[in-house]
């Protein structure tokens, strides 16, 4: 029996528009509009899960889902960089930013490493695998990238080579033994 896991990235936020690392913020007007349009295309599922972040919960609501919060879907912890723009970090800590972008085990911001996020996502996928049901998970681009890498057993250096924008939809399927990537829609 095949099961399907559909990831949906949270809708756009003010931080996305400012090229900043997010704090726990809600989605913006554009995100609400785009989510309402996407809602018409979304399949319905008995199981809808969301990250505990406001932007994921608001995305679920805008998509018309009554979702249960799953802490396993929480975003990458960016430590002291949360709320800061990429430019400000590049200007003040260029070596630290370069290290973080090139070394998956690096966490100069004091938060979570990309390696840790991938391991956490792999564990979460393993918890979902035996369910043999269709699940929709509303989470964050970093979590979705990590889940793709875990599903296809790709190396962590591939993390930055996957583009997941606001409201991207990624479908994985499982035969109960392993995951495969079915589709990615940006």
Set down the secondary structure blueprint:
Layout: E1 3-9, H1 14-17, H2 29-39, E2 47-50, H3 54-62, E3 68-69, H4 86-92, H5 94-102, H6 114-128, E4 135-139, H7 141-152, E5 169-174, E6 179-185
Parallel strand pairs: 1-4, 2-3, 2-4
Antiparallel strand pairs: 1-5, 5-6
Helix pairs in contact: 4-5, 6-7
Q: Which strand order do you get reading across the main beta sheet?
A: 3-2-4-1-5-6
Number of helices: 7
Query: Could you name the CATH homologous superfamily?
Result: Phosphoglycerate mutase-like
- CATH hierarchy, class: Alpha Beta
Count the E strands: 6
Strand content: 15-25%
Q: What is the CA–CA distance across the termini?
A: 28 Å
Rg measurement, Å: 16 Å
Structural class category: alpha/beta
**What is the total number of structural domains?**
1
Shape: globular
Q: What name does CATH use for the topology?
A: Rossmann fold
Overview of this protein structure:
This protein has 186 residues and is α/β, with parallel strands linked by helices. It has one domain: 3-Layer(aba) Sandwich (Rossmann fold). 36% of the residues lie in helices and 17% in strands. It is built from seven helices and six strands; from the N terminus they run E-H-H-E-H-E-H-H-H-E-H-E-E. It has helices at residues 14-17, 29-39, 54-62, 86-92, 94-102, 114-128, 141-152, and strands spanning 3-9, 47-50, 68-69, 135-139, 169-174, 179-185. It has a six-stranded mixed β-sheet with strand order 3-2-4-1-5-6. A hairpin with a 4-residue loop joins strand 5 (169-174) and strand 6. The two termini are 28 Å apart.
